[in-house]
Amino acid sequence: MVHLFGRLDDGTPFLVRDDRATPHFFIRRDDVGRALGAGITRVVESPARTLDDDRLTARVEGPIPAAMPAMRTALAEAGVVTYEADVRFALRYLMQRGVRASLRIAGPSRDAPGLGRVWHNPTIAPDDWDNFRPRVLSFDIETDPRARQLYSIGLAVAWGGDAQPSGAPAQEDVLLWSPDGLPTPAGARGFATERALLTAFVDRVRAIDPDVLIGWNVIDFDLRVLERIAQRCGVALRFGRGGERARTREGRSGQREAVVPGRVVLDGPATLRGAFLRYDRYGLDAVARRVLGDGKRMTGDNRGLAIDRAFREDRAHLVDYNRHDAALALRILEHLDLIALTVMRSRLTGLPMDRVQGAVAALDFRYLSALHRAGVVAPTVGARGRPPVAPGVDADDRGGAVFEPVVGLHRDVHVFDFRSLYPTLIRTFQLDPRSHVTDAGVGPAAGRAGGGDDWIRAPSGAAFRRAPRGLLPSLLDELMPRRAAALEGGRSIEAQAIKILMNSFYGVLGTSTCRFWNPALASAITAFGRALLGWTRDFVEARGHRVLYGDTDSLFVQLADAAAHQNVSGAADAAGAALAAEINVALTAHIADTWRVESHLTLVHAQRFRQLLLPSAKSGGGARKRYAGLLAASDDRPHARDDAALDGPAWQDEALENDEALVFIGMEATRRDAVPIAQRVQRALCARLFHGRPIAPYLTHTVADLRAGKLDPLLIHRRRLRKKLDDYAASGAPHVVAARKLPKPPRREIRWVFTTAGPEPLGHETAPPDRERYVQRTVRSVAAPVLDAAGLSFEMAVGDPAQLSLFGDG
Predict the structure, then answer these.
(1) What pLDDT digit, counting tens, does each position of 530-564 carry?
(2) How many angstroms separate the CA atoms of 731 and 241, rounded?
């Protein structure tokens, strides 16, 4: 039976129950005899054909979804290839009906306490309701340092599209364990036992009736701890919409997932990462300070002990702290529009809100839905092995084009970008699993880039049918104009959701965990990208312009007549836009002449750097995917500091370093694993270089302060431990060496310092920081590109060549 929980357009919750669907998957019709011999009892003919070899199929049916994995295993052992045997039962139900996130329901219903309206086997149809504003409950628990006893649960509610219902619980609240002798401060509700507190929490969730539960590490910590404590206290966490038990379990991907029937659980850090929002750290305090300018009320390494002390001695502080944490998580997701983005991604992909981060699953749902309408079924993931590669086809995915950078400091550099390069390549050249041809051969057609009359041939040699229109290009035909309209209409959330979905298509085609995985297809996409970026570079250089660098979908160009545009307002940007228009006309003609297809590619003049630094690589030549620059001022973003009215000594001017026009790509200034002293020095030196301010005084004073111990707080490294210490074997990695010196292994992150005794964990140092090591290996390293561009040496800038020469190049 399929259960579909939701909320009607009038705010009433609902449940659809449907027991008419039969669990099934597919095999080739030729394998029916072997399937019966393997113990399969129900096989019926199907009109569908297989995607990989166009064979007729049969349906293998089972009594319940849970029986299907064993049947798949039995068939695999008998040598029978299965199709779609891994598709979840409930998702197949939605795919077959074209339902994505919202639907129309027709038929008789009844009212049920807690569930709202209930339908049994109604008629349902797809819909695209765009006015859903979910009711969200954020919660956060506080415990003793070992997470064995529950102290309190903080709650914060966003009522979504509804006004707060009359008589509803408070918008923010704290439920507090108040055993004999401990008071209940104002603003909290006290309970004599943990059991009573847990029972009240269950009742509160059901009274609020949220669509979405959120928190920070809510699945790995809050829910898991609540499960454990509830089991000890004999409380069932029945806060599913119909009174079902909430639980956590190990998911297919190996990550823990929450199961709360009728409600979605979203974890804060996972939601940020899934939206491709990048932060140095994903802890609640770090993200809240970055996003909201606010943070936790208690921080530090001994926060667990501080919470324990507050529970016993300063309970008003604990209540305030707990309430604030719950509210912070809600405020962050609301401020970043992540709940609305998640709803939109669910509408686009068809996946439940707690699964929209899965790129493979997103393509799966949309592509399988279209495939089924065409009467075709796809392979089971992992059931077919590596797809065949036609003779003469290069299936080695070499990635995007990266041109050798012209090392040094450059003025007035224009950046041109192909808008949505890989999706537009898919759309232009019919790059699609159904269109891919493995028997086109090489023959005479291979001598011409476009191939013969029947095929579109990629530079890698892979061939694709011209007709009918591929399913993936057709999907992009729908999505790309929709994104353009969303951008034009100011619907940024919709535009971002579409962008995330489109950009996932190339990646999953090159991933073996995707059922449509095909190295030849993924390689064809990147081969087209390399060829067209190379063609664009040649076109630009043939007109006398200088290409300084190129990477995947971007070109960095100095215009031949750049001097004529200086000091003329808007002239440089107008010249860049004119060149982009000229390239687009020529590129469209080139693609039509070479491959006889209509180009959907668009090159845009993305931005212009007043100054651009392309550093050298340690191994020689230019460093790829690394640069720093100062963007040219625009009408809505003038420079914070523009070479004038600078206050104080040159080495103390932080306004330069905070200029919003500074851009760092692949540099220590923005890398999460870089030590803070490297980030600070690199940003400061680049700012001074770009603004024409003195470099040596800043570097001299910084090195002096470092050696004097004044910058010790900036010498702390952070690194996440991604596996257990024992699994690192004999690793000499500094963070592992430091972690092994702790009395007990750290949970997630190790913080350490290089001391004169080697890497040592913060708070457990046996020796002073090796400050000269930081001078020679850290400051010297990040300073080198800037000093090279300024014509200085590190010894000259710091001013003590005799001493520094003793340490070599370090």
Answers:
(1) 999 999 999 999 999 999 999 999 999 999 986 65
(2) 49
